[in-house]
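sorry for the late reply, my laptop died twice this morning and i had to redo everyting from scratch. anyway the thing you sent over, i finally got around to it. pasting the sequence first so we're on the same page, its 468 residues, then the predicted structure underneath. double check i copied it right bc i was rushing
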Amino acid sequence: MTYLNPDRIFDPDPAVRKIARVLYESVQDLPILSPHTHVDPKILADNEPFPDPTELILIPDHYILRLLYSHGLRLEDFGVPTHDGITVETDHRKIWQLFGEHYHLFTGTPTGLWMDAELLEVFGVHEKLTGETALSIYDQLQEKLQSEEFLPRKMYETFNIEVLATTDAPFDTLEDHKLIRESDWDGRIIPTFRPDSVTDLSHFQWHDNLRRLGSACGYEITSYATFIQALEERRSFFKTMGCTATDHSMENPMTHRLTDGEADNLFQRALKGRIETNQAHSFTAHMLMEMARMSTEDGLVMQIHPGIMRNHNLKVFNQFGPDMGGDIPIRTEYTRNLHELLNTYGNDPRFRVIIFTLDETVFARELAPLAGHYPAMWLGSAWWFIDSVQGMTIFREQVTESAGFHKTVGFIDDTRAFPSISARHDVSRRVDANFLARQVARHLIDPEEAQRIIRSLAYDLSKKAYHL
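ok and here's the structure:
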């Protein structure tokens, strides 16, 4: 039988644990703000029963898939669609059985922690997931998923989500968002403007994406000037649909403004298929400056999360496409790379930029001092490879003394797996409660102040940072 200790994550020191418990209980039931996810808005627009546990929990979650693949298991055997026509397993009970047989691989990982909580606290499953219990658990989950209590909108309400932001391409029609807004449901689902697929001139689908952007705007994009016009128009449209933030990913966070002539020259080279990697990087650096400029004008919060080598495993990418767990962190540098952007916009009260990283070595050395100085810069929480108990703890330990608590933005769940949202936020609230309890026990923070801070970390800072 699965048992989740109510003091999980808290320090074994009784004095610290007691304080952590009090702090956690004060925010345990606060609404969830989820300003950065990859949840498909269609599930909330349609509000149809989830197909089955495999389709809901396994197939869309690269956190799960990457670890299974790393142990030599084939993604085809988990029903992941291929680009090359290779037959994949379609029996979802069989897939879940295979997952149960290998669930022990997730012990000690944040995915295992979330999954245990999700199965017990969301779905009321009291058995430990193993090969022996897999099909029994599958049947329990399947029965629940067909009930009204587990329809997507009902789960949104049960989780006490106040707002959920999706991630959307600049050419997206946002039709699902429109359907949600026009329905009689009052859940707040907002888009996020993610232009990487057109601002990265080396993107593998850049030409197709540029045509789609032109179609969304109603004209052909043949120059840098019309490209900028199109992006500004789409940002304006996204704002009418509730968007409050943009999102930008790249390997290197270099920022540098080109002249319009230089930018158009690179754009024309890309149109002709003659762009080189270093030239694409220069264009990305320029577009970060342009996106910051637009943010000062339209008020959208800018999110930057560099330090990722996308699709590192070319075999997996060619067979299954992107977002299969093959995006690997790389070393990053921020002090010099962000110098031009922060000197141009970092003192502007109209601008807000939230910087994330997958490189925890820069927390204390660069990011915290930068955020502790520039008014416009905030720190995104530990996420992805470091959104573990240890990773989130290290984040708090390394950024707090230089930047304080109030230049961070709460927790970012970054999830594609909708049912895991409440479990992920619960872990974050426990980690922060424990960190603050240690500070109180060492008499660095008084108990009353710790109560105010834990609420800020769980709710208030996300609301403020993202203009929610």
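The chain has a mean pLDDT of 95.
thats about all i looked at so far, will dig more tmrw
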